[in-house]
Design a protein that fits this description.
single chain, mainly alpha, 66% helix
Length: 201
């Protein structure tokens, strides 16, 4: 239990979780107050899933990644558990609004966008570091929301996967591939090690 406490504290998880929960709560409250209809639009659902993933991304990096390179702890299992719990959070919190007057729907969209975008955030964290990991998912999602129109073409479904309904399998396959790649890459490699004054000395 002490290890879990130290892990949560070092990753600044309470702050990350608070922000991640606050994002859908804010979206829900604003739509309940000012929106028309009960169902929150798909574009807003995608943006909410994106912001939740971005809020949790900084917690993927340790204060000193060099410590995680040691063989004394099974970091891949712990990193995988960390990301799976984060995925459960980004899916469960929006679904908690289901019985209320404003809800994120349909259910498959919440689950697909949540795990897909979190996987993309994790993959970007492995490639670019947690500090820059928010850029690829943000750019991709904003471009999809701004320019992607519903289409049955596989290329359009792939580029705007977070908005397309599952009339075809392309959008779902892209989300699954991002989630799987992000989980595998983060569990295996973690975030890249940052240079420290000791490294430069």
């Amino acid at each position: 239990m002490r290890w879990a406490y130290l892990y949560v504290r070092s990753r600044r998880l309470p702050a990350a979780v608070a922000v991640a929960v606050g994002v859908p709560a804010t979206t829900w409250a604003l739509w309940l107050a000012f929106g028309s209809g009960r169902t929150i639009p798909d574009q807003l659902t995608a943006l909410t899933a994106l912001l939740m993933g971005v809020a949790l991304t900084p917690a993927l990096a340790a204060p000193d990644e060099g410590l995680e390179a040691t063989g004394s702890v099974r970091w891949p299992l712990r990193r995988a558990g960390h990301l799976l719990l984060a995925a459960a959070l980004v899916v469960a919190v929006p679904l908690a609004a289901w019985p209320t007057g404003a809800r994120f729907a349909p259910l498959w969209l919440v689950a697909r966008d949540g795990v897909g975008l979190l996987g993309l955030c994790a993959l970007a964290a492995v490639l670019f570091g947690a500090g820059l990991a928010w850029i690829p998912p943000l750019v991709w999602t904003l471009m999809a929301v701004a320019v992607t129109a519903p289409s049955t073409e596989p290329l359009r479904q792939a580029s705007g996967w977070m908005l397309h309904h599952p009339s075809g399998t392309t959008s779902t396959l892209v989300a699954a591939a991002l989630a799987t790649a992000g989980l595998a890459a983060y569990a295996t490699f973690g975030c890249p090690r940052r240079a420290t004054p000791n490294d430069q000395a």
